[in-house]
Amino acid sequence: MTFRAPSQAELTAFLQAEFPQSRCTLEALDADGSVVLAHAVGAAELRPGNTVSGPVMMTLADVALYVAILARIGIVPLAVTTQLSINFLRKPRADRRLLARCRLMKLGRALAVGEVWIFSEGDEEPVAHATGTYSIPRERA
Amino acid sequence: MTFRAPSQAELTAFLQAEFPQSRCTLEALDADGSVVLAHAVGAAELRPGNTVSGPVMMTLADVALYVAILARIGIVPLAVTTQLSINFLRKPRADRRLLARCRLMKLGRALAVGEVWIFSEGDEEPVAHATGTYSIPRERA
Amino acid sequence: MTFRAPSQAELTAFLQAEFPQSRCTLEALDADGSVVLAHAVGAAELRPGNTVSGPVMMTLADVALYVAILARIGIVPLAVTTQLSINFLRKPRADRRLLARCRLMKLGRALAVGEVWIFSEGDEEPVAHATGTYSIPRERA
Amino acid sequence: MTFRAPSQAELTAFLQAEFPQSRCTLEALDADGSVVLAHAVGAAELRPGNTVSGPVMMTLADVALYVAILARIGIVPLAVTTQLSINFLRKPRADRRLLARCRLMKLGRALAVGEVWIFSEGDEEPVAHATGTYSIPRERA
């Protein structure tokens, strides 16, 4: 049986089932393999200074990496983060969603490494940039 | 007026006021300047594989750094994360709280850098290790 | 007097004067602000496994960031690295130069953050990716 | 045949054979598994501002991780760095050696993660702190 990459609908259904409280949504799977996610921004996401908290952006980056990997290898739920680094560049807007674009830079048998650019929706300058590594368990979907 | 470092009660009150939804609690301020925080672990913190999600540990690390800095310089709410890196070492237990111990390695006028060791409560081997940098705005408490 | 960005020749002369033993060379300053550097690869750069050592790539990334910053703000020699992270993706070739392309993602008054893609010359897939932060002293050229 | 960890003399001989140009030396193997290395500091290590260049400290951190791993698993030359992050904390002295203490935080079958504290010899406050991950090829010594 030929491997068929999951569709956006299948990935969305998986995220909703496994992470029902998440405020991340899958917005697009692009032809070049990158994925675009959004994170709602409301009172729960804000911190002193009326800006989006770092943990929200870290969560978005981590989920974006997870989705980018599953979009390539199939829904392998047990892929786990082993390392993540993030630079916070600019203060995000408190009244816009966050958008994240993730592209993988390496997809090996055991490890995947990707980068994530995070923006306040509608703005051109990124608010954060992350790179992360996931460990992929041996059995793939 | 001499600078007086905030007490554990003052820091706890600040966290509860600014981050009412947070599941992090300040457990101890140690004599050497390190701080110990805990994060409750329940269904909201778990992910496929019955383990604690990476974002929960990243959040705990970030809050621990924030508290460690405020414990030293006073309650300066606008201190913000500029960079964070985390290594996930072992699978955390699904039935224990997470504990985090943070110590600062540098506290300058404009930047503070610290490291955070994260454990499943009761276990000796760390589940994660993080380092992070905060930017400190010019006016201190 | 209007600020004039340094030329490729001026930056090259600066590097040669301050880092006479360096095997890094400035190859290009691109219109979008990114810089391209090369690092010679010979016996001095190799390690067991007949591949280029990690420290050579870290050095190249660090110098690329430095040059990218100086190309924008002028020759400010005392700019110093405060943080650097690197992911090693693929084994570099032992018989080609390394090339590094660096673009800044943020250039503030006090801090600059950039990313560096490293390749074996002639290959399309990157061998490493780095992000780093430099502190910029207050007096600029 | 029982596994016997390499001695300090064996590790030193290996480093000298494989990295003859290196200015790193193995100073101690401590009972708790940590290793201590030194790096000579002379004109070749200095940069503008009369301080030790970042790449020297990155090299020292990387070699310290390598030695810490080989000290535990035997001389497996093909272990390679996959990720390294470093925070530069204070300006190192231009007239002292650098010392690095490395301890592993995780030693798995395929990956090892460690942290490195770097000092100017004789000073108590660290000049840098690094964490890094090495990939360990399947056949061990």
From TrEMBL, chains A, B, C, D:
Domain Thioesterase: 50-126
InterPro entries: HotDog_dom_sf, PAAI_dom, Thioestr_dom
UniProt keyword terms in alphabetical order: Hydrolase, Membrane, Transmembrane, Transmembrane helix
GO MF: hydrolase activity
Enzyme category, top tier: hydrolase
Pfam families reported in the protein's UniProt record: 4HBT (PF03061)
Keyword rRNA-binding recorded: no
Statement: the UniProt record of this protein carries the keyword Hydrolase: yes
Name the record gives this protein: PaaI family thioesterase
Organism: Pelomonas nitida
